Amino acid sequence: MASFPESGIIHRVMSENTLTIREVGPGDCPAWGALWDGYNRFYGREGPTALPADITALTWARFLDLGATRVYWQTHETNATAMRLYDRVAERTGFVIYRKLV
Fold this sequence. Notes:
Layout: E1 10-15, E2 18-23, H1 29-42, H2 53-64, H3 80-89
Antiparallel strand pairs: 1-2
């Protein structure tokens, strides 16, 4: 397993069998935006159901907040490919989310 910094967000750059790990910077926003858009499309958030632009901007700003000591996320239980990656780079907390419309 790779070693990651205790704080800050990392950005991985892969090219020609080389992996570089570094802190994310403001110039990484376009590449992150493409990943973010794909993530949202996967979960059906595009067009009329797309997240507002201010949510996207706030999410990106959180990556640049060097005072952050952790990051967390959710994924669907059927997203086995992503979960294999997440299990390698993060701790599975055991929390289960329930929702009831009222």
